[in-house]
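>> received
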Amino acid sequence: MDPKLLQLLVTREMPYGKYKGRVIADLPGNYLAWFAREGFPSGELGRLLALMLEIDHNGLKHLLEPLRPNANAGD
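>> returned
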């Protein structure tokens, strides 16, 4: 697992579609599952969506919180 991919999940925005502009880590699980059924896009975006689906499916989204920009701003 490349840690850089995890960082991209909390910074990269969805470039198109219903959730355009939303950070990939914030995409709903049913939207990620739709991609799994219909086919992930090629390239980095597809890899990030597939990774996010696995994280969401396994209930691990909370592990991304410390990676978010300004996650430690309140400390």
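>> The radius of gyration is 12 Å.
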